[in-house]
Amino acid sequence: MTEKPLSGQVAVVTGAAKNIGREIALMLAADGASLVINGKSDKAAADAVVAQIEKTGGTAMVHMADVADPDQAQGLIEAATEKFGRLDILVINAGMRRQNSIVDIPLSEWREVMTMDLESPFVLAKHALPHMLENGHGRVVTLGGTSAHTGNVGRAHVGAAKMGLLSLTRSIAVEFGPNGVTANMVAPGHIDTVRGEAAGERSKSGAGRPIQRMGKTSEIAGMVRHLCRPEGAYITGQCIHVDGGIYLGGA
Fold first, then answer.
1. 5 within some domain
2. Residue 3 domain-assigned (yes or no)
3. pTM, rounded to two decimals
4. How many domains does one find in the chain?
């Protein structure tokens, strides 16, 4: 492995201004990739990520976009390729959490979550994949969640969308593997992040997990980085749980 295994490659990370997305962007930049930092509303936070990357000799740009809007999602991919001339890595990290009992979820909220957590990744991948096919190489990494696999009170819509996203991820892996493109999902457990009020309270499921602490953003980002590195080239169609053992049966 070279010192900068992703040198010459271009990565788009959605929701990269804070938390897990920010850590992913910093790690990919440290490996030599040029980064497109996507955020929805907090441009100052996105600019700070770019500044940190540039301070360490990396290359990055900000593109603010609400990727739930198909036109803005397409515009994000186009901005990346116009700036850097190629696209190699797409990390779909931006997502939406809402919390409500199944009987209380308004149809509008169900559709809002589906649009953000399932339709948006489809639109992003649809526009990113042709560039990867042109390169003969690509990495698509989606972010899921262990609770989608175990079931979770209050987040039926989020879980349903994330399981749909896993199917989309695997379909990309199967269809485009012969073209040098891999696609995998990383499913975080309970990670120490700053969350908005709309996300609701943290799930108490998994309190008895084998590793009895919350995960770090760096532990999720480290797995994403591995999947994007040359060492990850033979991994595709997988859902990798980074969750302290919740899915193992610690819940």
1. no
2. no
3. 0.92
4. 1
